[in-house]
Amino acid sequence: MNFVILSAIILLPHGDLSVRIAEKTAAIKKEPSNLLLYMQRGELYAQHEQPDSALLDYAVAIKNGFDSSTVHVLKAEAHLALNEIDEGMKSVSRFLKMEPNHLKGIHVRAQLFEAKNELDKAIRDFEFVISNSEGARPQDYVELSNLYLNRDSTDFKNAIDVLNRGREKLGNIISLEMKLYDLEKSRGNFESAHTILNIMMEPLSRKERLMVEKAELFILQEEQIEAAKTLVEAENSIAALPARFQHIGATIKLKQRIEELKQQL
Amino acid sequence: MKYLKLIIGILLSLNLLAQEVEIIRGPYLQSGFTDKVTVCFRTSDDATPTVFYGTNRENLTESVAATESAKDHFIDVSGLQPYTKYYYEIKAGDAVLVDDADDLFFRTHPTKTSNVKVHGWVLGDCGTANDDQRAVRDAYYNYMGKRATDLMLFLGDNAYNIGTDKEYQKAIFEDMYEERLKNTIAWSCIGNHDGYSAKSKNQSGPYYDIFHFPKEAECGGIASGTEAYYSFDYGNVHFISLDSHQSDRSVGGSMYTWAENDLANTTAKWIIAFWHHPAYSMGSHNSDKEKRLIQMRENFVPLMEKYGVDVIFSGHSHSYERSYMLSGHHDVSDSFDIEKHTVSNGKGDGREDGDGSYIKTPEMEGKGMVYLTAGSSGKISGFEDELHEAIFISLNELGSCAFEITEDRLDLKFIDNKGKVEDYFTIVKQ
């Protein structure tokens, strides 16, 4: 039973986003010829996860000659959310005609190409976005790496290259390095996988998880002695942890994994 | 007339008639750690100011100058001693922009082994820039009295309506938190309203221009490569801030991979996570129905549990909702079973003078987290028809949270806008 103190009960699905939509609707009633308001309400609908309602507002703005490129890229995004790829492509093309090389437009087009499974074009656009973005994130590099492999599951070269470009730009970021490690391991390039693991482990104060990864690599390489040695190091590392960490779910699972790997030796 | 022109010319050349540069935002403190802090402020005109600092207010012997002329300044002060109070002042040439004062200081973070007491102030969805927000602030100030605040956590939606620079000025810097911001390091996660004008994709826009967060593990933790999500250490407490709004929230995504490795690397006694969209809420947002809230609960809550996180703060719903001490509840509200989804004495009120403090022992496999939706620091918006089953107390009250952590004990209080403690609980680690 909840302990409750209520001074008011108000039902607000999606919180103040609903209020803002209502405010925008009121503004449209007052100024029905102000097409900017339709675009703005459309944006709110999109944030409200109602892309179909957003499209209706964008259509009103465009039909009545709203003089803005932005409405077209917003329309493309709404079509993308509804998986209406061809319609989305038309809108983004119109936007990019008005705003050539606009990063947001090219990014939306890349997503549309990906949805159409036109992966060469998607990769070209994602590459353009990453190369020209000031603050590309780790996830942008990881997603592009995945795209190379979606296009050709053997294209480790490009998939790895894009991750390394991310590392050059952002530094030793664990999400990039974990992906790199997975790729090197899955293509059987164990020496490179060890190198990446060593780089990841170096700054860590707790190394037990990656030690177990290392042991798995040694097992794949059929280097049983090294694997056994590394598992002992991992166990020692766990034993040296404060009690509270020895009993958390992650450590319990790790200990189970160590036992499983020991069986394989 | 000729002489008057001559005098004006001379004065102009001496720059005496030129408008004096003054500080119009801040100073405020960012990205602090045991040996560093960033002093931030905005000047009314381009300037190349210098921060003078030292442990003796009467003798500020050290200095760091801005490297270029600008209006917005982010001056890194490094080479500091852990858990040390440094007074500072800011000058531009001979002009004093902010004079040294008793309350103009920064204190570096303690080291992990120091076990000092930590006082934190948590503000969710505060950015209304109105008297309600100020009342919440004043109630906290009165509650704390002369006690220092060690850190501030903003839970997003820090400036309504769309997080513009102008809105931030009113909601954060002007007649709002300036008395704390000049001597307390502030941290934040991005909210949806901040996200109307800021983009995590390239970390641009007012939110990312104003805040400077560690992306290269400068303040502890593991490098995330982005200011959208990051971590830091304060003594024996590890804080992890996630972007529930604009970053990939999937299991195995970049934020998830980073968070898992970050949590797997900490040896801190306490772990506190914070992000904007609440995992358990029936306030102005419904965690059973809204995508981001569901994803954070289904994807990130299990990760937090796996690594023994103790407390999670969120905002978004403009209410205060505090859970029992939970474990393993990742589904909708109706599926909550108090016997199954609480651990230890977690189905009680967590109050020392009530059912007893929540107890966590090492043998509990790190299980047991308390979730707080604390998004009523600027406005309140009521509840859904049915309250969340996993929530012990739901309050439609303006307020903010104050927490205090000593070696084995965490105390949290929700202080309403009139200064009344409306909820409190304690976690004790045995």
CATH superfamily of the largest domain in chain B: Metallo-dependent phosphatases
| Rg from Cα of chain A | 26 Å
Major sheet details of chain B: 7 strands, mixed
Radius of gyration of chain B: 23 Å
Helix tally of chain A equals: 15
- Low-confidence blocks of residues of chain B: 11-18
Can you write the helix and strand succession of chain A as a string? EHHHHHHHHHHHHHHH
Provide a descriptive summary of the structure in words.
The complex is a heterodimer of chains A (about 260) and B (about 425). Chain A contains 15 helices and 1 strand. Mean pLDDT of chain A is about 90; it is low at about 1-15. Chain A has about 260 residues and is mostly helical. Chain A has helices spanning about 15-30, 35-45, 50-65, 70-80, 85-100, 105-115, 120-130, 140-150, 155-170, 175-185, 190-200, 210-220, 225-240, 245, 250-265, and one strand at about 5. The radius of gyration of chain A is 26 Å and the shape is elongated. Chain B is an alpha/beta fold and about 425 residues long. In chain B, about 15% of the residues lie in helices and about 30% in strands. In chain B, the strands form 4 sheets. In chain B, strands 11-10-9-20-21-22-17 form a 7-stranded mixed β-sheet. In chain B, strands 12-13-14-15-18-16-19 form a 7-stranded mixed β-sheet, with helices on one face. In chain B, strand 3 (about 50-55) and strand 4 form a beta hairpin. Chain B is globular and about 90 Å long. Mean pLDDT of chain B is about 95; it is low at about 10-20.
